[in-house]
Write a structure and sequence with these properties.
7-stranded mixed beta sheet; alpha/beta; binds S-adenosylmethionine
């Protein structure tokens, strides 16, 4: 399949592989992990910026907020009655826009690692007092608030190494109020690709930089959630507006 790596990345993160990649052309896990620096994906998103994310969201069939529409029953109580929503990896503000359109005005605390994206969001929402943009990696977040709902949409959870995923889940768990919910939205399957990959690690180099991801199976995610202390878990499989299958995990504290 002859496609630009960047294009393939969003195909990959939205369509997914049926297995976690072939080892044949791939680098070893150890090599990829050694190269995966804390700043790599941040720089990548600095370069993708708002325009790139907006274009990708259309191609992935998420621009209309399909991923949020499918869980709106699950999160409706949070939107109606609760006070604070945390968004992890706010990107171009797609989730914030959907929340604002619902007409409810909970406090939204949106964290974003990319200085470029965080700066754009801060400027865009500077007149809305209920929205705070925090420029940080979730791993460095010092919890100084609590929330009723945390949204981690569009594959962002894959952008952490295995051990980092556990740390991040513990951080979010500590921020959530009792019975609070965390939504993690992931690609359903990953298609075979010519990307450098080994086992469940991905590395893509293109005009934006080098991007790393660690894929996780449904069972492994459920196990990690349980370990972090989440009491209930359920998942919803759905198709985006461009017919791409995804899965949304709803974890309850
Ligand atoms: C695919 S985009 C999704 C944007 C948005 N959540 C949405 O659904 O439209 C992933 C975003 O998460 C951010 N991100 C990835 N890892 C992060 C981390 N560890 N801490 C904070 N932000 C992160 C990226 O910079 C990027 O903006």
């Amino acid at each position: 399949m002859n496609v630009r790596p960047a294009y393939f990345l969003y195909l990959l993160l939205s369509i997914g592989l049926t297995a976690f990649g072939s080892q044949e052309e791939g680098e070893t896990c150890a090599n990829i992990l050694a190269e995966w620096t804390p700043q790599a994906n941040r720089i990548y998103y600095d370069n993708v910026a708002v325009k790139g994310l907006e274009e990708w969201a259309v191609i992935k069939g998420l621009a209309s907020g399909k991923d949020l529409d499918v869980i709106k029953q699950e999160i409706s109580e949070s939107l109606r009655r609760y006070k604070t929503i945390l968004e992890i990896g706010a990107g171009n503000g797609r989730i914030i826009e959907w929340l604002l359109k619902k007409g409810t005005r909970p406090t939204i605390i949106a964290i974003e690692q990319s200085a470029v994206l965080a700066g754009t969001l801060r400027e865009k929402y500077r007149n809305i007092e209920t929205i705070s943009i925090i420029e940080t990696n979730i791993l460095n977040l010092v919890p100084s608030f609590s929330c009723d709902l945390a949204l981690w949409m569009w594959s962002g959870f894959l952008e952490l190494k295995p051990e980092e995923k556990k740390v991040a889940l513990a951080i979010v768990f500590s921020i959530l109020k009792d019975k609070g919910k965390l939504v993690i939205d992931l690609p359903r399957q990953i298609q075979e690709s010519s990307l450098s990959q080994s086992g469940d690690f991905l590395k893509v180099t293109d005009e934006y930089g080098t991007f790393f991801a660690h894929l996780i199976s449904d069972e492994a995610l459920k196990g990690m959630a349980k370990e972090a202390g989440f009491k209930r878990e359920r998942s919803i499989i759905y198709k985006t507006d461009t017919n791409i299958e995804r899965i949304s995990f709803l974890l309850e504290k």
